[in-house]
Amino acid sequence: MDTFIFDFNTDSTLTNDTNSTHSDLDWTAFQSAPPPTTNSPFSPLWSSQQDDAVAPNNRSTLVATPHDDEIYFEMEHFFNGLNQQEQLPPIQPQQQQQHHQGIIEPIHVNINVPDQIESPSRTHLSLVINEQPMSCLSTPMVPRVSSARSQCYHKLPDHAVKLMQEWYNANLDDPYPRSPDKKRFITEGNITAQQCRSWFANRRQRLKHVKRNQSKSSLSVASSSSRVHHSIQTRLSQLPPAEAQMLAHEHCYYCQQQQQQQQQQQITLSPSPIPLSIPTNPTTATTTTTTLNVVINQQTVEQLIHNSLRKLLYPALM
DNA sequence: AGGAATGATTAAGC
DNA sequence: GCTTAATCATTCCT
Protein backbone atom coordinates (compact mmCIF):
# COMPACT_ATOMS: atom_id res chain seq x y z
CA MET A 1 0.00 0.00 0.00
CA ASP A 2 1.27 3.44 -0.93
CA THR A 3 0.26 6.46 1.00
CA PHE A 4 -0.47 9.45 -1.15
CA ILE A 5 -0.61 12.79 0.52
CA PHE A 6 -3.00 15.22 -1.05
CA ASP A 7 -3.00 18.87 -0.20
CA PHE A 8 -6.44 20.33 -0.05
CA ASN A 9 -6.10 24.02 -0.50
CA THR A 10 -9.11 26.23 -0.16
CA ASP A 11 -8.97 27.03 -3.85
CA SER A 12 -9.24 23.32 -4.59
CA THR A 13 -6.07 23.02 -6.57
CA LEU A 14 -4.01 19.92 -6.25
CA THR A 15 -0.39 20.26 -5.39
CA ASN A 16 2.35 17.74 -5.06
CA ASP A 17 3.89 17.25 -1.68
CA THR A 18 7.41 17.01 -2.97
CA ASN A 19 8.76 16.43 0.50
CA SER A 20 6.76 13.29 0.91
CA THR A 21 8.68 10.08 1.00
CA HIS A 22 5.48 8.05 0.83
CA SER A 23 4.57 8.62 -2.76
CA ASP A 24 6.34 8.07 -6.02
CA LEU A 25 3.26 8.92 -8.03
CA ASP A 26 3.89 10.71 -11.28
CA TRP A 27 2.01 13.91 -10.71
CA THR A 28 2.57 15.23 -14.19
CA ALA A 29 -0.24 12.99 -15.32
CA PHE A 30 -2.62 14.69 -12.96
CA GLN A 31 -1.47 18.07 -14.11
CA SER A 32 -2.03 17.19 -17.74
CA ALA A 33 -5.54 15.95 -17.08
CA PRO A 34 -8.36 18.08 -18.46
CA PRO A 35 -9.56 20.85 -16.15
CA PRO A 36 -12.14 19.65 -13.65
CA THR A 37 -15.75 20.56 -14.20
CA THR A 38 -16.45 20.47 -10.48
CA ASN A 39 -14.41 21.45 -7.51
CA SER A 40 -13.01 17.97 -7.40
CA PRO A 41 -9.86 17.64 -9.46
CA PHE A 42 -10.29 13.88 -9.39
CA SER A 43 -13.49 13.54 -11.31
CA PRO A 44 -11.91 13.28 -14.75
CA LEU A 45 -9.58 10.56 -13.57
CA TRP A 46 -12.04 8.20 -12.02
CA SER A 47 -14.99 8.69 -14.26
CA SER A 48 -14.90 6.45 -17.24
CA GLN A 49 -16.74 6.91 -20.46
CA GLN A 50 -18.35 3.54 -19.92
CA ASP A 51 -19.02 1.19 -17.08
CA ASP A 52 -15.53 -0.22 -17.20
CA ALA A 53 -12.90 1.41 -15.13
CA VAL A 54 -10.38 2.63 -17.64
CA ALA A 55 -7.12 4.21 -16.74
CA PRO A 56 -6.33 7.48 -18.46
CA ASN A 57 -4.48 7.03 -21.71
CA ASN A 58 -1.40 8.82 -20.46
CA ARG A 59 -1.31 6.81 -17.26
CA SER A 60 -0.67 3.30 -18.35
CA THR A 61 0.81 2.48 -14.95
CA LEU A 62 -2.22 3.65 -13.04
CA VAL A 63 -4.73 0.87 -13.47
CA ALA A 64 -8.15 1.49 -12.06
CA THR A 65 -9.37 -1.10 -9.57
CA PRO A 66 -12.56 -1.56 -7.59
CA HIS A 67 -10.84 0.32 -4.78
CA ASP A 68 -10.78 3.43 -6.92
CA ASP A 69 -14.46 3.91 -6.37
CA GLU A 70 -13.95 4.00 -2.64
CA ILE A 71 -11.09 6.43 -2.96
CA TYR A 72 -13.09 8.51 -5.33
CA PHE A 73 -15.98 8.66 -2.89
CA GLU A 74 -13.64 9.73 -0.14
CA MET A 75 -12.24 12.50 -2.28
CA GLU A 76 -15.68 13.48 -3.46
CA HIS A 77 -16.87 13.65 0.11
CA PHE A 78 -14.20 16.10 1.05
CA PHE A 79 -14.77 18.29 -1.96
CA ASN A 80 -18.45 18.30 -1.24
CA GLY A 81 -17.41 20.12 1.88
CA LEU A 82 -15.49 22.61 -0.18
CA ASN A 83 -18.44 23.00 -2.53
CA GLN A 84 -20.63 23.66 0.45
CA GLN A 85 -18.15 26.26 1.53
CA GLU A 86 -18.71 28.10 -1.70
CA GLN A 87 -22.38 28.39 -0.90
CA LEU A 88 -21.62 30.07 2.40
CA PRO A 89 -21.82 33.84 2.67
CA PRO A 90 -18.93 35.61 0.99
CA ILE A 91 -15.79 35.96 3.05
CA GLN A 92 -15.31 39.39 4.53
CA PRO A 93 -12.19 41.24 3.40
CA GLN A 94 -10.65 40.80 6.82
CA GLN A 95 -11.26 37.07 6.77
CA GLN A 96 -9.95 36.89 3.25
CA GLN A 97 -6.75 38.45 4.43
CA GLN A 98 -6.53 35.83 7.13
CA HIS A 99 -6.93 33.21 4.42
CA HIS A 100 -4.00 34.55 2.49
CA GLN A 101 -1.93 34.97 5.59
CA GLY A 102 -2.15 31.25 6.00
CA ILE A 103 -4.23 31.23 9.17
CA ILE A 104 -6.41 28.59 7.55
CA GLU A 105 -3.80 26.07 6.59
CA PRO A 106 -4.21 23.48 3.87
CA ILE A 107 -5.38 20.18 5.29
CA HIS A 108 -3.36 17.07 4.54
CA VAL A 109 -5.29 13.87 4.24
CA ASN A 110 -3.71 10.47 3.84
CA ILE A 111 -5.41 8.20 1.39
CA ASN A 112 -4.25 4.62 1.24
CA VAL A 113 -4.05 3.35 -2.29
CA PRO A 114 -3.36 -0.30 -3.08
CA ASP A 115 -0.22 -1.06 -5.00
CA GLN A 116 -0.89 -1.05 -8.70
CA ILE A 117 0.66 -3.56 -10.98
CA GLU A 118 1.38 -2.62 -14.50
CA SER A 119 -0.23 -4.87 -17.03
CA PRO A 120 0.60 -4.84 -20.71
CA SER A 121 -1.93 -3.45 -23.10
CA ARG A 122 -3.98 -6.13 -24.73
CA THR A 123 -4.12 -4.14 -27.89
CA HIS A 124 -0.37 -4.30 -28.13
CA LEU A 125 -0.39 -7.99 -27.36
CA SER A 126 -2.85 -8.77 -30.07
CA LEU A 127 -0.95 -6.60 -32.51
CA VAL A 128 2.32 -8.30 -31.72
CA ILE A 129 0.99 -11.81 -31.75
CA ASN A 130 -1.41 -11.10 -34.60
CA GLU A 131 -3.31 -14.22 -33.84
CA GLN A 132 -6.54 -15.11 -35.51
CA PRO A 133 -9.42 -14.56 -33.12
CA MET A 134 -11.53 -17.51 -32.16
CA SER A 135 -14.82 -16.44 -33.55
CA CYS A 136 -14.23 -14.40 -36.64
CA LEU A 137 -17.23 -14.68 -38.87
CA SER A 138 -17.07 -14.01 -42.54
CA THR A 139 -19.62 -11.25 -42.26
CA PRO A 140 -19.49 -8.13 -44.41
CA MET A 141 -18.74 -5.73 -41.55
CA VAL A 142 -14.97 -5.56 -41.61
CA PRO A 143 -14.17 -1.92 -41.03
CA ARG A 144 -10.41 -1.83 -40.52
CA VAL A 145 -7.40 -4.07 -40.36
CA SER A 146 -5.77 -2.34 -37.43
CA SER A 147 -6.00 -5.27 -35.06
CA ALA A 148 -7.34 -8.76 -34.80
CA ARG A 149 -10.05 -7.54 -32.48
CA SER A 150 -11.35 -4.99 -34.91
CA GLN A 151 -11.50 -7.49 -37.73
CA CYS A 152 -14.35 -9.35 -36.20
CA TYR A 153 -16.67 -6.78 -34.76
CA HIS A 154 -20.15 -7.34 -35.97
CA LYS A 155 -23.53 -6.49 -34.70
CA LEU A 156 -25.36 -9.66 -33.85
CA PRO A 157 -28.52 -10.34 -35.82
CA ASP A 158 -31.49 -8.63 -34.22
CA HIS A 159 -33.34 -11.90 -34.20
CA ALA A 160 -30.57 -13.60 -32.22
CA VAL A 161 -30.41 -10.77 -29.70
CA LYS A 162 -34.15 -10.82 -29.32
CA LEU A 163 -34.16 -14.57 -28.71
CA MET A 164 -31.44 -14.41 -26.09
CA GLN A 165 -32.92 -11.33 -24.47
CA GLU A 166 -36.29 -12.99 -24.08
CA TRP A 167 -34.70 -16.07 -22.59
CA TYR A 168 -32.57 -13.98 -20.26
CA ASN A 169 -35.54 -11.99 -18.99
CA ALA A 170 -37.45 -15.19 -18.34
CA ASN A 171 -34.53 -16.73 -16.44
CA LEU A 172 -33.18 -13.87 -14.40
CA ASP A 173 -32.81 -16.09 -11.36
CA ASP A 174 -30.50 -18.47 -13.25
CA PRO A 175 -29.31 -16.82 -16.46
CA TYR A 176 -27.14 -19.70 -17.60
CA PRO A 177 -28.53 -21.33 -20.73
CA ARG A 178 -28.01 -25.08 -21.01
CA SER A 179 -26.95 -26.82 -24.18
CA PRO A 180 -30.42 -27.17 -25.75
CA ASP A 181 -31.10 -23.46 -25.28
CA LYS A 182 -27.70 -22.54 -26.64
CA LYS A 183 -28.21 -24.73 -29.67
CA ARG A 184 -31.51 -23.02 -30.30
CA PHE A 185 -29.93 -19.56 -30.14
CA ILE A 186 -27.13 -20.70 -32.43
CA THR A 187 -29.33 -22.25 -35.06
CA GLU A 188 -32.32 -19.92 -34.94
CA GLY A 189 -30.29 -16.79 -34.37
CA ASN A 190 -27.61 -17.73 -36.87
CA ILE A 191 -24.72 -17.01 -34.52
CA THR A 192 -21.73 -19.01 -33.28
CA ALA A 193 -21.39 -20.72 -29.91
CA GLN A 194 -18.69 -18.23 -28.99
CA GLN A 195 -20.96 -15.31 -29.80
CA CYS A 196 -23.69 -16.86 -27.72
CA ARG A 197 -21.35 -17.32 -24.76
CA SER A 198 -19.99 -13.80 -25.10
CA TRP A 199 -23.44 -12.31 -25.26
CA PHE A 200 -24.58 -13.98 -22.06
CA ALA A 201 -21.29 -13.28 -20.31
CA ASN A 202 -21.51 -9.61 -21.21
CA ARG A 203 -25.15 -9.47 -20.25
CA ARG A 204 -24.58 -11.02 -16.85
CA GLN A 205 -21.57 -8.87 -16.13
CA ARG A 206 -23.21 -5.62 -17.12
CA LEU A 207 -26.37 -6.28 -15.20
CA LYS A 208 -24.32 -7.19 -12.17
CA HIS A 209 -22.45 -3.94 -12.59
CA VAL A 210 -25.69 -1.97 -12.68
CA LYS A 211 -27.03 -3.70 -9.57
CA ARG A 212 -23.77 -3.16 -7.73
CA ASN A 213 -23.72 0.51 -8.60
CA GLN A 214 -27.32 0.92 -7.52
CA SER A 215 -26.73 -0.60 -4.11
CA LYS A 216 -23.44 1.22 -3.74
CA SER A 217 -24.97 4.59 -4.43
CA SER A 218 -27.39 4.09 -1.56
CA LEU A 219 -24.88 2.67 0.89
CA SER A 220 -21.68 4.44 0.01
CA VAL A 221 -22.81 7.83 1.19
CA ALA A 222 -23.07 6.71 4.78
CA SER A 223 -20.03 4.46 4.89
CA SER A 224 -17.62 6.63 2.95
CA SER A 225 -18.74 9.73 4.77
CA SER A 226 -18.02 8.05 8.03
CA ARG A 227 -14.66 6.71 6.94
CA VAL A 228 -13.39 9.90 5.43
CA HIS A 229 -14.75 11.80 8.34
CA HIS A 230 -12.65 9.63 10.59
CA SER A 231 -9.48 10.05 8.55
CA ILE A 232 -9.92 13.80 8.43
CA GLN A 233 -10.70 13.97 12.10
CA THR A 234 -7.58 11.97 12.87
CA ARG A 235 -5.56 14.57 11.08
CA LEU A 236 -7.39 17.45 12.65
CA SER A 237 -6.89 15.97 16.07
CA GLN A 238 -3.24 16.88 15.75
CA LEU A 239 -4.24 20.53 15.79
CA PRO A 240 -5.41 22.49 18.81
CA PRO A 241 -9.02 21.40 19.48
CA ALA A 242 -10.60 24.79 18.91
CA GLU A 243 -8.89 25.33 15.58
CA ALA A 244 -9.54 21.78 14.47
CA GLN A 245 -13.22 21.99 15.25
CA MET A 246 -13.57 25.22 13.37
CA LEU A 247 -11.82 23.72 10.33
CA ALA A 248 -13.82 20.53 10.51
CA HIS A 249 -17.14 22.27 10.55
CA GLU A 250 -16.05 24.63 7.86
CA HIS A 251 -14.69 21.99 5.47
CA CYS A 252 -16.22 18.66 6.35
CA TYR A 253 -19.48 17.92 4.61
CA TYR A 254 -20.12 15.12 7.04
CA CYS A 255 -19.86 17.43 10.02
CA GLN A 256 -22.20 19.91 8.41
CA GLN A 257 -24.71 17.17 7.73
CA GLN A 258 -24.43 15.95 11.27
CA GLN A 259 -25.06 19.41 12.59
CA GLN A 260 -28.17 19.73 10.48
CA GLN A 261 -29.38 16.31 11.55
CA GLN A 262 -28.81 17.11 15.18
CA GLN A 263 -30.91 20.21 14.81
CA GLN A 264 -33.61 18.26 13.00
CA GLN A 265 -33.63 15.47 15.55
CA GLN A 266 -33.96 17.92 18.39
CA ILE A 267 -37.15 19.06 16.76
CA THR A 268 -38.58 15.74 15.60
CA LEU A 269 -37.50 13.59 18.52
CA SER A 270 -39.38 15.57 21.07
CA PRO A 271 -41.71 13.47 23.27
CA SER A 272 -42.95 10.87 20.80
CA PRO A 273 -42.58 7.51 22.51
CA ILE A 274 -41.95 4.45 20.34
CA PRO A 275 -45.06 2.27 20.47
CA LEU A 276 -43.92 -1.13 21.70
CA SER A 277 -46.43 -3.94 21.73
CA ILE A 278 -45.43 -7.20 23.35
CA PRO A 279 -47.49 -10.07 21.94
CA THR A 280 -49.32 -12.01 24.60
CA ASN A 281 -49.98 -15.64 23.88
CA PRO A 282 -51.57 -17.78 26.61
CA THR A 283 -49.86 -20.97 25.47
CA THR A 284 -46.37 -19.46 25.66
CA ALA A 285 -46.97 -17.31 28.67
CA THR A 286 -44.13 -18.90 30.58
CA THR A 287 -41.54 -18.26 27.90
CA THR A 288 -40.14 -14.78 27.81
CA THR A 289 -38.90 -14.65 24.24
CA THR A 290 -40.07 -11.41 22.71
CA THR A 291 -39.21 -10.02 19.33
CA LEU A 292 -39.06 -6.30 18.94
CA ASN A 293 -38.91 -5.02 15.41
CA VAL A 294 -37.15 -1.71 15.66
CA VAL A 295 -36.36 0.24 12.55
CA ILE A 296 -33.22 2.26 12.89
CA ASN A 297 -32.85 4.74 10.12
CA GLN A 298 -29.61 5.83 8.50
CA GLN A 299 -29.59 9.10 10.38
CA THR A 300 -29.64 7.32 13.69
CA VAL A 301 -26.79 5.03 12.71
CA GLU A 302 -24.70 7.91 11.46
CA GLN A 303 -25.48 9.78 14.63
CA LEU A 304 -24.27 6.86 16.73
CA ILE A 305 -21.06 6.59 14.70
CA HIS A 306 -20.51 10.29 14.91
CA ASN A 307 -20.98 10.34 18.66
CA SER A 308 -18.58 7.43 19.08
CA LEU A 309 -15.99 9.20 16.98
CA ARG A 310 -16.38 12.35 18.95
CA LYS A 311 -15.90 10.45 22.16
CA LEU A 312 -12.73 8.95 20.76
CA LEU A 313 -11.33 12.11 19.27
CA TYR A 314 -12.45 14.73 21.73
CA PRO A 315 -12.77 13.03 25.09
CA ALA A 316 -12.28 16.35 26.83
CA LEU A 317 -15.36 17.79 25.17
CA MET A 318 -17.63 14.96 26.15
C1' DA B 1 -17.26 15.18 -30.75
C1' DG B 2 -18.09 12.56 -26.85
C1' DG B 3 -20.54 9.29 -24.22
C1' DA B 4 -23.23 5.04 -24.23
C1' DA B 5 -24.04 0.57 -25.93
C1' DT B 6 -22.37 -3.51 -27.62
C1' DG B 7 -19.49 -7.38 -29.34
C1' DA B 8 -15.19 -9.57 -28.65
C1' DT B 9 -10.88 -11.08 -26.37
C1' DT B 10 -7.94 -12.51 -22.65
C1' DA B 11 -6.40 -14.25 -18.17
C1' DA B 12 -7.54 -16.47 -14.19
C1' DG B 13 -10.31 -19.47 -11.43
C1' DC B 14 -13.28 -23.41 -10.70
C1' DG C 1 -14.98 -26.28 -20.74
C1' DC C 2 -17.32 -22.71 -18.72
C1' DT C 3 -17.57 -18.40 -16.12
C1' DT C 4 -16.14 -13.92 -14.38
C1' DA C 5 -13.77 -9.70 -14.61
C1' DA C 6 -11.34 -6.48 -17.08
C1' DT C 7 -10.55 -4.36 -21.13
C1' DC C 8 -10.45 -3.05 -26.03
C1' DA C 9 -12.64 -1.71 -30.38
C1' DT C 10 -16.41 -0.38 -32.94
C1' DT C 11 -20.88 1.49 -33.76
C1' DC C 12 -24.77 4.12 -32.36
C1' DC C 13 -26.85 8.13 -30.53
C1' DT C 14 -27.36 12.87 -29.02
Automatic annotation (TrEMBL):
<dbReference type="GO" id="GO:0005634">
    <property type="term" value="C:nucleus"/>
</dbReference>
<keyword id="KW-0539">Nucleus</keyword>
<dbReference type="GO" id="GO:0003677">
    <property type="term" value="F:DNA binding"/>
</dbReference>
<feature type="DNA-binding region" description="Homeobox">
    <location>
        <begin position="149"/>
        <end position="211"/>
    </location>
</feature>
<feature type="region of interest" description="Disordered">
    <location>
        <begin position="31"/>
        <end position="54"/>
    </location>
</feature>
<dbReference type="InterPro" id="IPR009057">
    <property type="entry name" value="Homeodomain-like_sf"/>
</dbReference>
<dbReference type="InterPro" id="IPR008422">
    <property type="entry name" value="KN_HD"/>
</dbReference>
<feature type="domain" description="Homeobox">
    <location>
        <begin position="147"/>
        <end position="210"/>
    </location>
</feature>
<keyword id="KW-0371">Homeobox</keyword>
<feature type="compositionally biased region" description="Polar residues">
    <location>
        <begin position="39"/>
        <end position="54"/>
    </location>
</feature>
<dbReference type="Pfam" id="PF05920">
    <property type="entry name" value="Homeobox_KN"/>
</dbReference>
<protein>
    <recommendedName>
        <fullName>Homeobox domain-containing protein</fullName>
    </recommendedName>
</protein>
<dbReference type="GO" id="GO:0006355">
    <property type="term" value="P:regulation of DNA-templated transcription"/>
</dbReference>
<keyword id="KW-0238">DNA-binding</keyword>
<dbReference type="InterPro" id="IPR001356">
    <property type="entry name" value="HD"/>
</dbReference>
